Amino acid sequence: MKINEVYKVKAWYYYLGFILLGFFMNYSFSLTLLILLLAGSFMLAYAYSFNDFWDKRKKAYFVLPLVLSILIIPFLNQTQILLALIFLFIVTIYSAKPIRLKAKPFLSSFCNGIGFSVLFLLGYSVKSLDFRGFIFFLLFFCFNMVAQFIHEIVDLKEDRKNRIITTAVFLGEDKIKTTCYTFLLIAFLLSFYLFYLEFVGFIFVLATLFFVLFFTYKIHKKKIDRRLRKEYKLFGLIVGVIYFILLFLSRIG
User: Fold this and answer.
1) CA distances from 165 to 62, 83, 125, 189 (A)
2) Runs of H (alpha helix) within the chain
3) CATH numbers and ranges of domains, the chain
4) Residue 29 — φ and ψ, nearest 5°?
5) Least packed by Cβ within 10 Å: which of 67, 92, 125, 216?
6) Each residue of 194-228: pLDDT tens digit?
7) Contacts of 28 (CB under 8 A, 6+ apart)
8) N-to-C CA span, the chain
């Protein structure tokens, strides 16, 4: 068994970054962070392997990360336990029959947008959740929705062949592009709202604006393919690092 192939380990760093960002917005380094990262890793391993189990009829590799997730969850606080259970619930009904939200337009996309954004709240809720955390959750939800729509367009032919009715299959590429513009605009407005509330500085807004304008142009002018998907992920990581530095400095400043 190849661990990376089965559990998609190379994809973890992107989503574990949400936990890191949320955690350091409220807390300094501690053992709690290690527990959160382990919990996040186990849950992501479960999500990917459980999805492959239903998609490709692979062996039940998801059992191990599910058991490890259940064993580590009690070490989290009450809010984090609830969030972890929400994540596990979402990824389960996303893939498993007969519910299988993956094959249902809109619901499939929202599952991804909400599910991966919950990881930010998992780190953020090392202390109590508040209004600032909720706005950041909405911001990352918007970015994750665009990432999901790009992913769906890339897989459009394959999903049609397998009769998986994703949002992209249901709406078509042109309408999905318009939906992407909408979510990118909302993301920028949320960043400006955070600035208005004095939760972030102006550089945060500029970084968001650059990202939004760049990918609005890319989605409009370029073909949405695997290359664009990689670019969105890479630039998202870069902007995430900028967010991390700015928010961490503002907390200790």
Assistant:
1) 24, 28, 35, 31
2) 3-7, 12-24, 31-56, 63-72, 78-95, 107-124, 131-154, 156-161, 167-171, 173-196, 202-221, 226-252
3) 1-128 (1.10.357), 130-253 (1.20.120)
4) -60, 135
5) 67
6) 999 999 999 999 999 999 999 999 999 988 999 99
7) none
8) 47
